[in-house]
Amino acid sequence: MDKKRAIAGKTREILREYQIRPAKRLGQNFLIDQNILHKIITAGGVEAADTVIEIGPGLGSLTELILNRIPAGKLYAIEKDQKLVAVLADLLAGYHNLVVINQDVLAIDWPHFFAQHQLAEVSVKVMANLPYYITTPVIMNLLESGLKFKQITLLVQKEVAARMAAAPGGKDYGALSIAVQYHSKVEIVADVAPTVFIPPPQVDSTIISLYPYRNPPVKVSDQAFFFKVVQAIFQQRRKNIKNALSNSTLFRLSKEGIMEGLARGGISPTLRGENLSIAEIAQLSDILKLMAVEQN
Is residue 103 part of a domain? Predict the structure, then answer.
């Protein structure tokens, strides 16, 4: 195959040439629609001197478009599948600013990765067409790393994107909504049909951009305790907040203490957690933390 031709739009040809069959166990669904690829690039705000980390480059369709956008930048492509690493090295051999890394993204220690590649003082963007089964852990590993990525643009399962962007009061709003929105501003870009993949997945997808905050939108006295409260509230999301908190084993507070904390926060004990904003949960968390300290 002539490697000078663009990879985008040549997926079937590449699969035949390199005798590759998409691995179901790795969640491999290769994006074949050039319009969608360009939507991802546009959403990612890729500029000439950017440093970009691409997770799961696959056959390199998005990779090549990113490289063409960053002649003065650098791209780190993290791919778990050794066979695809060899394909990427072959198809993209002419690019001086590409580093292909054969590693499971879930095994990456991001602070160590940044130190290893001298990225501490660099503004870094992340882009990915994520296998659906690793979407949530990959996103949370990035957001909880303590590193201030400039932007994270992902193609994910539509249902997961809806949960990340959900506002209080709906069925999609939950622990994932709060965790992602505590760390970043969430923007839904566009929905994507299964027909633009080989093989087509069983669900629709969504392009989503996350803009990590330098400081969270709410202040809490103890972040770990805040997320324990979030977990307790949504572990039993059909229960009202009084019962959800009282039944939790994540912290030790009596039912009377829970009721007092809710009263101090001006929160009705009959509300469900899905009706509380991040700010209200943050306030309640600080109250319950103080009460827990007072009890000990």
Answer: yes
Using a 10 angstrom Cβ sphere, with 0-12 exposed, 13-18 middle and 19 or more buried, the burial of residue 150 is middle
Residues found in the chain: 296
Across the chain, what does the average pLDDT equal? Answer: 92
Residue range of the domain that includes 168: 11-212
Distance CA 180, CA 174 (A): 10
Read off the pLDDT of each residue in 249-268 and give the average, rounded to a whole number: 88
Tally of domains in the chain: 2
CB of 224 within 8 A of CB of 251?
A: no
Q: Looking at the domain assignment, is residue 234 inside a domain?
A: yes
Q: Is the pTM of this model over 0.85?
A: yes
Residues 29, 50 within the same domain: yes
Residue 165 CA: distances (Å) to CA of 7, 73, 181, 234, 280 = 32, 30, 8, 16, 18
Distance of CA 119 to the CA centre of its chain: 20
